[in-house]
């Protein structure tokens, strides 16, 4: 899943080396915490959060294989 998130995010940002993804595994959910360079936060979130919503939709759909809820937090 980290590879999928990184593949989606890299073309959007100017500083791809600053991308950090942390996975937190809990009983009933998996939380991915995405950190990017401060200059790239707006690019990842997008106008009115459209890009962030689209990224979350793809991640949630890919996470359907596991029997846990999948969340993506943009830090």
UniProtKB/TrEMBL annotation:
Protein name: RNA-binding protein KhpA
Coiled coil: none
Cellular location(s): Cytoplasm
Entry's family note: Belongs to the KhpA RNA-binding protein family.
Job description of the protein: A probable RNA chaperone. Forms a complex with KhpB which binds to cellular RNA and controls its expression. Plays a role in peptidoglycan (PG) homeostasis and cell length regulation.
PROSITE patterns xref list: KH_TYPE_1
Superkingdom to which the source organism belongs: Bacteria
A matching Pfam family: KH_KhpA-B
Alphabetical UniProt keywords: Cell shape, Cell wall biogenesis/degradation, Chaperone, Cytoplasm, RNA-binding
Known partners and oligomeric status: Forms a complex with KhpB.
Matches recorded under CDD domains: KH-II_YlqC-like (cd22533)
PANTHER family: RNA-BINDING PROTEIN KHPA, UPF0109 PROTEIN SCO5592
């Amino acid at each position: 899943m980290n590879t999928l998130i990184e593949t989606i995010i890299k073309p959007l940002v100017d500083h791809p080396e600053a991308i950090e993804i942390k996975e937190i595994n809990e009983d009933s959910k998996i939380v991915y915490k995405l950190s990017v360079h401060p200059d790239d936060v707006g690019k990842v979130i997008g106008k009115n959060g459209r890009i962030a919503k689209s990224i979350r939709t793809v991640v949630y759909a890919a996470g359907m294989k596991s029997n846990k809820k999948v969340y993506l937090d943009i830090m």
